[in-house]
Design brief:
Length: about 575
């Protein structure tokens, strides 16, 4: 929470001027009952129309000046709130992007989306209301009590009793609702998660005709959210009736005592009206204060949740003396592997058993490394350690003879082109998407990569070339087209290491074969890691890694593994004919 207060330093002036002008408005408002008392006691009593008009003009002047002060305060408060909200949202987005896969896995995508949207909006609204009302409402409450004492001390004693009672009610409700609003926001995360899962899996839901089940599941989560909101709303709703009872009871006592004092000539009728007006002002301001406290409670709960994200630190740390550039190609000895794993173990966050254990192998320049294994064997986990998306628990991962932990992340990832399992393209032109691989790539370089990725027909079929507009998520492309274009995006960079993580699963066998042949021919000096479920895809690799339950159970060429690796032999025989296996 303290970290969030630092955002006010750029809006010090606005944070001072907003409440200041609100206090000025409140000051003018406190004079209104006194002017009304004069109109009653002097103007109406003496039937002096000129006096009434004069005092009426003063009321209009107080109203106009108060309105000007209110608008000015609103401007400065809104400027500060929106500015802080914008900076907070930008910093939160930047911080989330600095987190490693490990922290994102722990926190969860739906939670991060809620923090970025709903929580920041609540904090922004809370800041706006706080700057406008946090000082104004208490100022009018205590100001009205002081003004009441200037009129008549005995009559004003009712204020001394009413205000503490009201404070107990207001702050009591606040203390009860704050923890409940945290639960509301947490349940909102769950509703968002359910919505996200349903939208991402819409095709699967409809394919299995599970719409009604998903609607029922969403209904249950939404009902829990509504139940929490109703419960906390009932507690908050107690505030208004209780405060009204206290205030109206105080007004009844005030009028009752005031009537006897007017009868005895202690105070005037105008002064009784002024006291009632001050009590009404207190009522209005306490209702505002109650609503303010509810919103502040929400904002504080959201601010603490945002602070929790800022408190998450990336487990991927760059050393201060990290290598900004790797060794030059001419300095590398032929015996130095491009990638080397040395007795490496890897655990996912919270896991008791390792996802990978005892992994050791070397991959040299120009080699194609095939990686195969059953589902959950650790294939993707293995290749994610090379660009340091995760850190190994034990052992080492080296690139060009240097531990990946000794590189700067930018330098390490500049050497590597990654094509993830899920093909992701961004809204914009095809040229813009291709330049993710290399910002200053020429059209010639882009087309060369597209040709290697067997995606030329995709570009030509759309008839717009590199100006083809890619819709959000690549909705205007098929799965195979997206996969080929994501491969082309990685090839544009001409990386030293290319990681293809099951990135041709949507391609037909002919296109897959043509793709592998083109990559082999066009990337002779590139070390290629090819993760696949298909034995045909990796059987011609220079070296094949066979993973089973997180362990490296086979390492060698296709022919070698057929002879000495039972797991690999079973995979091949389940997918290929005996003639294909023998080739």
């Amino acid at each position: 929470m303290k970290n969030l207060l630092a955002y006010f330093k750029n809006y010090k002036l606005e944070s001072i001027l907003g409440p200041l002008f609100k206090l000025l408005e409140a000051s003018f408002e406190l004079f209104v009952p006194l002017v009304m008392a004069q109109i009653i006691d002097v103007g109406i009593k003496n039937r002096d129309m000129a006096y009434i008009m004069g005092r009426g003009g003063i009321l209009v002047l107080l109203g106009v000046v108060g309105l000007a002060c209110s608008l000015t305060a609103q401007y400065f408060s809104a400027k500060a709130a929106v500015g802080i909200g914008t900076k907070l949202r930008n910093d939160l987005f930047r911080h989330i992007n600095s987190l490693s896969y490990r922290e994102i896995d722990i926190v969860g995508t739906s939670t991060l989306v809620t923090r970025m949207t709903s929580d920041v909006n609540q904090v922004q609204a809370g800041i706006n209301l706080t700057l406008r009302l946090f000082l104004r409402s208490p100022f009018i409450v205590f100001g009205a009590m002081i003004m009441a004492f200037t009129i008549n001390i005995k009559a004003a004693l009712v204020f001394v009793v009413a205000i503490p009672l009201l404070s107990v009610v207001v702050f009591g409700v606040m203390l009860m609702t704050m923890p409940l609003y945290k639960k509301v926001q947490k349940q909102l995360d769950q509703v968002l998660l359910t919505t996200r899962e349903n939208l991402l899996g819409a095709r699967v839901v409809r394919a299995f005709n599970r719409q009604e089940d998903e609607i029922a599941r969403f209904g249950r989560e939404n009902d829990r959210l509504v139940g929490l909101q109703v419960f906390v709303g009932k507690i908050s709703a107690l505030m208004n009736p209780v405060t009204y009872v206290i205030i109206n009871g105080a007004i009844i006592i005030l009028v009752w005592n005031g009537a006897w004092q007017v009868e005895e000539g202690v105070i005037t009728q105008g002064e009784v009206v002024a006291l009632v007006n001050y009590m009404s002002q207190i009522l209005v301001e306490l209702v505002k204060l109650a609503n303010l406290i509810i919103n502040i409670s929400k904002a504080l709960a959201c601010a603490n949740r945002i602070s929790g994200i800022f408190a998450q630190e990336s487990s991927i740390k760059e050393k201060q003396d990290c290598a900004e550039t790797g060794p030059k190609e001419t300095d590398l000895a032929e015996s130095t592997p491009r990638v080397e794993f040395r007795n490496m173990d890897f655990y996912y966050a919270g896991a008791k058993e390792p996802s990978l254990s005892g992994i050791s192998f070397s991959a040299f320049q120009g080699q194609t490394i095939g990686i195969i294994g059953g589902t959950g064997s650790g294939k993707t986990s293995l290749v994610n350690l090379i660009p340091r998306f995760y850190d190994a628990a034990n052992g080492k991962v080296l690139v060009d003879g240097i531990d990946v932990k000794d590189y700067s992340l930018s330098c390490l990832r500049e050497k590597i082109g990654v094509v993830p399992q899920k093909a992701v393209l961004f809204k914009g032109s095809l040229r813009d998407n291709m330049k993710w691989g290399k910002r200053d790539a020429t059209d010639e370089e882009i087309y060369r990569a597209i040709d290697t990725a067997q995606a030329r027909e995709v570009v030509e079929a759309k008839e717009k070339g590199l100006d083809l507009l890619i819709q959000q998520g690549g909705r205007n492309l098929s799965g195979g087209q997206k996969q080929r274009l994501t491969i082309a995006r990685a090839l544009v960079r001409q990386p030293k290491i290319l990681i293809l993580d099951d990135s041709a699963s949507a391609l037909d066998f002919a296109t897959d074969a043509a793709l592998r042949k083109a990559i082999k021919e066009d990337t002779k000096d590139m070390t290629v890691f090819m993760v696949s479920q298909r034995a045909a895809t990796i059987k011609n690799a220079d070296q094949i890694l066979v993973l089973d339950d997180g362990k490296l159970v086979g390492l060698g060429s296709h022919r070698q593994l057929l002879d000495n690796c039972q797991v690999y032999r079973e995979i091949c025989l389940s997918q290929l004919s005996k003639e294909e296996v023998a080739r």
